[in-house]
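[Discussion] Sanity-checking designs against the backbone

I'm trying to build intuition for which residues belong where. Below is a structure token string of 211 positions. I'd appreciate it if someone posts a full sequence so I can compare it with mine line by line.
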């Protein structure tokens, strides 16, 4: 199956675009949701995280205190690497399982940090939702009520707009109305259906009856 990796900076419009694909009947897998699931209480990943970072990384109810963990790894690349070594293989294994269970021409995997995690090889095509940084800031401010400083810090920690554009196979410019965003999504949907159909024709038969 054709796998589209949907990515973009904070507030660029990824979730909105994913919703539009979903309305067109395309299966959507959210890597952030999978990332939360792999660290639920009782999971191997949470056990390893606790062994590495200490029990103070947990909430009193045994769930992961994400804010505290973020605080530890935010400026410490070695600690960030240790965390990624624990969670990334599990996230990608889970994503692969979910994709294998799908029956569709193509699917969209929303991976906000696709570039930052260096996993672009996981997908067949990278779709970047691009937005002027001023729009990202004002949307996130309106939605989450974060201060300009908090938003700037998050944007600094993410890949630069130009490096995201450099890895894009397909691009959605979210610098207009929601109606325009929907239109671009629908056009891409037709494009992906054509690509998936063409790939189907050239794919070798899995079970060739002559053998
Ligand atoms: P995050 O990375 O923070 O999860 P995101 O990239 O998924 O964000 P969305 O949640 O889709 O972004 O969009 C952020 C906010 O901006 C939402 O409230 C959404 O409705 C709004 N928004 C997105 N695009 C537009 C647009 N073109 N016009 C008006 N509002 C928009």
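Best answer:
Here's mine. Compare freely.
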């Amino acid at each position: 199956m054709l796998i589209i990796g949907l990515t973009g900076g904070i507030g660029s419009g990824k979730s909105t675009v994913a919703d539009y694909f979903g309305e067109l009947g395309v299966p959507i897998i959210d890597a952030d949701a999978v990332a939360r699931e792999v660290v639920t209480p009782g999971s191997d990943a949470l056990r390893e995280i606790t062994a590495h970072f200490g029990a103070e990384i947990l909430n009193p109810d045994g769930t992961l205190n994400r804010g505290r963990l973020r605080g530890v790894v935010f400026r410490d690349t070695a600690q960030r690497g240790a965390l990624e070594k624990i969670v990334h293989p599990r996230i990608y294994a889970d994503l692969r399982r979910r994709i294998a269970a799908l029956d569709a021409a193509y699917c969209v995997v929303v991976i906000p940090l696709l570039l930052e995690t260096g996993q672009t090889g996981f997908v067949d095509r990278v779709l970047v939702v691009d937005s002027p940084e001023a729009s990202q800031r004002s949307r996130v401010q309106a939605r989450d009520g974060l201060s300009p400083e908090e938003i700037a810090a998050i944007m600094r920690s993410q890949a630069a707009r130009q490096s995201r554009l450099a890895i894009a196979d397909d691009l959605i410019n979210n610098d207009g109305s929601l109606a325009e965003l929907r239109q671009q999504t629908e056009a891409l949907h037709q494009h992906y259906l054509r690509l998936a159909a063409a790939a189907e024709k050239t794919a070798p038969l899995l079970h060739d009856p002559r053998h």
